[in-house]
Amino acid sequence: MILSQIVATSENFAIGKDNKLLWHFPEDLKYFKTNTSGKIMIMGRKTYDSLGKPLPKRFHIVISRSEIKSEFPNVHFVKTIEEAIEFAKTKIGEYPEEVMVVGGAEIYRQTRLQCDLLYVTRIPGQFEGDTFYPANFTEGFSLKNRQMSEQHPGLVYEIWSKS
Ligand SMILES: NC(=O)c1ccc[n+]([C@@H]2O[C@H](COP(=O)([O-])OP(=O)(O)OC[C@H]3O[C@@H](n4cnc5c(N)ncnc54)[C@H](OP(=O)(O)O)[C@@H]3O)[C@@H](O)[C@H]2O)c1
Hints:
Layout: E1 2-10, E2 14-16, H1 26-36, E3 40-44, H2 45-51, E4 59-63, E5 75-78, H3 81-91, E6 98-101, H4 105-111, E7 117-123, E8 131-132, E9 141-148, E10 156-162
Parallel strand pairs: 1-6, 1-7, 3-4, 3-6, 4-5
Antiparallel strand pairs: 2-8, 7-10, 9-10
Bound molecules: NADP nicotinamide-adenine-dinucleotide phosphate.
């Protein structure tokens, strides 16, 4: 299994506020869709709530300390991060080897060092958020790929791999 995080962060590492995203860049949403479609996604319960409904063509593993039963075939609740990773492993084959950790802040923080790859979209500017990506996220990782957006100056797609 390859464990990857995918995140969009502002220059001051804000990623969300009031359980919502802070910006709307369709190009970045497309990048997210391209990199998660067909795959297993691991997320925190708050991020799952923020989606409103499960995303099509993806399997959701949602982490919550509460006992929650899923009403959707492509959503499975677990109670720990370890359980999320173990459950993802049982689904490899049916789904690709790369499993995407899609947030939010709590889950990014607790899984970063177990990850092989970090897909980081740099959003230009400072934003007033209430949830943040670790400012030191590059520690232990090396830059593997960097691509500028042609549409939005300052928006950059980076991929970091474990050193
Ligand atoms: N910019 C981006 O790329 C991006 C991506 C994703 C999300 N976001 C933003 O991030 C924000 C949400 O992030 P967040 O940090 O507040 O919440 P989160 O990480 O999505 O979810 C937190 C919840 O996950 C569960 N949890 C966390 N650690 C756990 C553990 N060790 N064991 C069991 N359960 C655990 C708890 O659920 P229970 O309370 O149910 O127990 C906790 O309340 C939103 O604003 C969202 O829009 C941004």
